[in-house]
Amino acid sequence: MISVPVRICFFGDSMVNGTGDDACLGWVGRICASARRSGRDLTCYNLGVRRDTSADVLARWQREAEARLPPEHDGRLVFSFGANDCCPGEDIGGVRVAPGRALTNAEAILTAAVAWRPTLMVGSLPICDIAVDRRIRHLSDDFASLCARLRVPYLDVFDLVAASDIWAREIAAGDGVHPNEGGYAVIGDAVENWAGWRAWIDRAASS
Amino acid sequence: MISVPVRICFFGDSMVNGTGDDACLGWVGRICASARRSGRDLTCYNLGVRRDTSADVLARWQREAEARLPPEHDGRLVFSFGANDCCPGEDIGGVRVAPGRALTNAEAILTAAVAWRPTLMVGSLPICDIAVDRRIRHLSDDFASLCARLRVPYLDVFDLVAASDIWAREIAAGDGVHPNEGGYAVIGDAVENWAGWRAWIDRAASS
């Protein structure tokens, strides 16, 4: 099988990092390992950072991506953030980043990203706090509309995670916010079966 | 067991990234997963970048580390680079980064690192090219002397890897430079049993 090498930068928060996963893979490591095991030549750069908001990702993603994706290689981008924006903080509405600002940040990130490299976005994840999760749910819907307008494939995972028993059990057994291996596998399976991701992986394999 | 949370940034080249590992762990993911499975609350930031030399790491490590290690958390640093410096290039001696410059770069990195956070260094790895590997061997010795002077614990892994049958087999079966799961496990085991690493992990567990 011919396999085009591809290098993918994953940007976002602790859920992208895989915080709390005793296997140190997270959903990012799981989907990349799965692609490699099926013969894809894929290099994974996990650039998730704990507590990062849309503003934090906006401030760093371009420089970090440019250091990892030289022009002569097939480099791609995946983003997933938003939950930390909705946590209590100093911005309008008593959150860390107000929804209007979060959308402006996401638009700035995604507009520059799609103009540069193939780009996907995975939706914001709940953190198991009722008031915060209500805001994350709304923001995830707004991100879906934004991505539709910018033609960035978007995978909503909020409801999937909110309904996951294993996610809830692992959150309770862990630090109250992050799951462990089972929860990250739930996200990994969803992303792996998503048409947005499959188009990359299947195209990479057949080129 | 009480476990102090610790966040560790690993900086270096493709061997730090774990390029070629179908499990998408590399030696970094393996030692971090092992520490977590034994009860340590550890967050892993893998900041290895393919083709990075000492000059590339010098240019980016501080900004990337500051984005991941806020002052209120126990944050630490591990470096491993040098092989790419020794590959054919435009610097003095026909390499990408001449040995004198590589040492100057390493000294600048490590001096700033140890003044800021606990720091370890893992030696440069061979890439299975006779002429290049001879240069890497010399550079690794120079790094050992530098680290002794700066009081940075240093683990020489060159000879271990050069003598590893599984490393050689996986290099040959892969892209000619990077191993797969077995080779990265060889490095992971060596780092995991190293006093420099154990002092961190055991201290974190007993504090």
What value does the average pLDDT of chain A take? 95
**Proportion of strand residues of chain A:** 5-15%
Shape of chain A: globular
Number of helices of chain A: 9
Structure description:
2 copies of one chain form a homodimer. By secondary structure, the first copy, chain A, is an alpha/beta fold. Helices cover 51% and strands 14% of the residues of chain A. Chain A contains 9 helices and 6 strands, in the order βααβαββαβαβαααα. Chain A has a 5-stranded parallel beta sheet with strand order 2-1-3-5-6, with helices on both faces. In chain A, helix 4 runs parallel beside helix 5 and helix 7 packs antiparallel against helix 8. The N and C termini of chain A lie close together (10 Å). The relative contact order of chain A is 0.17. The mean pLDDT of chain A is 95. Chains A and B meet through helix 2, strand 2 and helix 3 of A and helix 2, strand 2 and helix 3 of B.
Provide the descriptors you would attach to this structure in a database record.
homodimer; alpha/beta; 207 residues; globular
Tell me the layout of helices and strands:
2 copies of one chain form a homodimer.
Chain A: E1 6-12, H1 14-17, H2 26-37, E2 42-48, H3 54-66, E3 75-80, E4 88-91, H4 99-116, E5 119-122, H5 130-150, E6 154-155, H6 158-162, H7 165-173, H8 181-192, H9 195-206
Parallel strand pairs in A: 1-2, 1-3, 3-5, 5-6
Helix pairs in contact in A: 2-8, 3-4, 4-5, 7-8
